[in-house]
Structures are given as structure tokens and as C-alpha cells.
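Long-time lurker. I teach an intro course on protein structure, and each term I like to show students one example going from raw sequence to a predicted 3D structure in C-alpha cell notation. This year I'd like something fresh instead of my usual example. Would anyone be willing to generate the C-alpha cells for the chain below so I can use it in lecture? Attribution to the forum is fine with me.
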Amino acid sequence: MDYILKGIFVLFSYASLSSVPVVTSTNSVTDSLYSHLFTNYKEKLIPVCTPGGKVDVFFGTALRQMMNLNEKDQTLTINIWLRLKWSDCRLSWNTSQYNNTHLVVPYDTVWTPDITLYDSSAEEEMMPGKTDYRATIYPSGTVYYNFPTVLQSACLVNVLYFPMDTQTCTLKFGSWSHSGAELDLYPSTDQGRPITDLTNLVFHNEWDVVSMKAQRNVLYYQCCPDPYPDITFSLEIKRKPLFYIMSILFPCILTASVAALGFVLPPESGEKVSLEVTVLLSLAVFLLMVTEQLPASSVNFPYVGMYFASSMILVSFSCAMTVLVLNIHFRGATGNKLPNWMRKLFLKRLAWILFVKTGKATSNKVHSEKNDTKKQEEPNQNNFINKTFKMDSEDATPRNRTSNGSIVSPPRLPSLITNTSSRDILLRSSDPMLTLMSEQCDTLKKIEGHMQQDESEEQTNNEWYLLAKVLDRLCLFIYIFMTFLTSVIFLAKMAGS
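-- Reply from a regular --
Happy to contribute to a lecture. Here you go:
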């Protein structure tokens, strides 16, 4: 029985061991090449293999996305692909000995140039993701290292032509620790011309990328005697102005045009000044909206801000003229007469030029008729009273008849009335009818005087009303002309960027 159990155990053990695969020590294709290249390789040292030699680094870019341009902080944020190429004499091999056309290694395995963005405004990491990718090595020792990153650079923004402006932001790259004697920097070229790749550019809703040019500069700094080369990329972008035209410029032009209605509104409405003040406050709000988006700069104040300021000045002028017109409109209530020179200049000449109807009756005619009436009223009354008194005197004179029927007039008595005026005659007459007529004449004269006075006051008020109307029309034409002129000038200035 024991022999049977031992036999079963041996068979089970043999079956278990036969199912385990046998591991053989085989090397991958890249192991031998990697061991050959990096056995004594020091990645922290610059690959200068000859005395007095230097490393030439070719630098290229591919713009992926224009992310944001903050005008207030004057910073540019872009998504860009950086492409580095240099030659490392320690990383070459014979393709006949090693069956490898290239070798991909981690970033920290090989030496890489310390390319820096000089004008970086990033608060944390300057080039995010720089150490997260791999370098490609070719048999000649040429090393390519391409990686995407997001750069935040300082960009001097000129807002003079906002919102129809074109901005040029520079990206200055160079080595921070190596001078030109050890590391020389060149832009990537195509047939001898510097190239920048814009084929993979992503559409932006506010900015259009016009161009991106590369230029090599060699500068000497006060800290060091050696030259320091750098590659400066000039990114030219143009703003899409439609959004700002529809949200800022068009409402401003429309609001400034509404202020012209204040000169058409009748003074009796009592809303002329309130309308102008409301328009002025609206323009102030639009100006605040613009200044919140732009940097606080006194060097390049935008034309759009100047346009808003000019519109506010014009609206303030219209408000002042509205107050003046209202003052003139109600000037007649104080009893002041319109001067003759104002009557001739405004009511006769300017009223005809500005197409203002002044009516047929003029104040001169009214005043002349009033004076003629005063001159004629007393003689007419005297004539009427003389005739009446004569008729009554004849009827009241006693007549005597003779025996043959002829009428004999009584002897004329000497007149005791020394004053021969008709009024005195009526006053000294004892006839009640004549006294009543005299009182009626006095009453009619007073009524006529009051009517003439009311008519004169009404005519004076009408003259001031017409003067206010002429000034309203004159200010309307001046305001429309100045608003149109300022709009054309500033829009042409903004479009001329």
C-alpha cells in the first residue's frame, strides 16, 4: 500500500514539473545597443568631443493653439510643440553591427539642452511636460526631442486700435547656462529659410494667427563676456472685431444718436434734460466696460475710449444747449422784449435757412398797429362826441315861432365853458345820455387797452418760443454733423491698424 501511494505521488510531481515552462535568458534587440551607448555615458555633461568645439542646436516650433491674450495683464498663453535637434558624438553606432535604425530613450537618459523661455510669466513650471517625453537617437548621433507644452509669456499689448487691432508677441528662447562658445542655437530651416509650422493650428474664436516668424539673435550681456545666441519667434495675431462692434461700438453709436432726439422733443414735455442725462450715463457705462478689459496705460489710450469721451462731450454740450433753449423758451413770461438784432438774425435769416416756420404776423407789425391805434383813438372819440354833442345841442335849443309861422332863434348866450375839449363838454353837460356814453367810451378804451396788452404779451411769448425753436433746430444740425464726423474719424483710425 505504501508503494502504491509513493508511486502516485511521484507521478503527480512529474506531471506538475512537466507543465512549468522553461525560461531561457534571451536579450532584446535594443539591449545590446543600449548597453553599448550608455555604459559610460554621462547625461549631465554637454557633448563636446573636440577641443574648442561646440554643440549646434536647431530649434523649431509648431503652433497648436492660440489660447488666450490677456490685455489687462499683458500675458500670452499658447499651446505649442517644441522641436529640438542636436548632435551627440557619444551616441553614434554602426548599423551593420547593430540592427537598429533608431533608438528611443527616456528624457533623463540623454543630455538635453536647457532651452529657456526668457520672457516667461508662468508662476509655477515654465515648460510643463518637458521631462515627460522621450528622445529619438539615430546612428549618426543626431538626437531629436519633440514635446508639447503650454507657454505663458509676457506680451506688450498696444490697445490703440482696439477692437480692430493687430498684436505682435515675441517668444525668446535660448540657453540659460551655456554661452555661444559651448552651445550655438539656430532656427530650423527649410531650404535655408527659417520655418514655423502652422499646419496643425486650432481655430480660435477671437484671434486669427497671421504669421509666425523666427529670427536668430546674438546678444552680449553685462554679466558675461561671451555671446549668447537666442531664437526669437514673432507671433502676429489679429483680433476679430465683430463681437466688440456689436456689443460696444454699435450700442454707443446708437445711444449717441438718440441724444439728437432731445432737440426734437417739445420743451413743454419736460423730458428734454432727463433724456440727455440718461444718454450721458449710458455712454459712461460703455466707457467703463471698455476700460475694464484694457490695461491701465496712459501711453496708448485706445481710439475707442477717445470716441466714447468725445461722444460724452457732445452729449454734455447737447445737455447744456437744452438748458439754454428751455431758458429762452420761458423767457417771455418775464415780460422781456426780444431785441431787434435777434429778431432779424434768428427769426428772419436763420429760420429760413433751417426751415423753421415763423408764421405771417410779426411783432413789428403788431407794435406799429398798436401805436397807430393809440394815435387815432382819441381824435375819433373827439369827433364822435363833438357830433353827438352838436346834435343834442341843436335838439335842446328852444325855438320861438312868430305869428306868420317863421322860426325865430333865441339869442345866443355867452359860453361859460372855457375848455373846448369834447371830454370837458361832456363832463359839464347835464344830459344823462351824454354822461352814460362817456362812461361807456372809457370802459371800451380800457378793454381795448387790456386786449392790446394781452396781444402784445402773447406776441412777445411767441417770439421767444420761435427763437427757442430756431436754436433747437440749429443745435440739432450741429450735433448730427459733429456726431457723424467724430464717428467717421475714429472708426477710420481704428480700421487703419
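Some talking points for your students: The CA atoms of residues 260 and 479 lie 7 Å apart. The mean pLDDT is 79.
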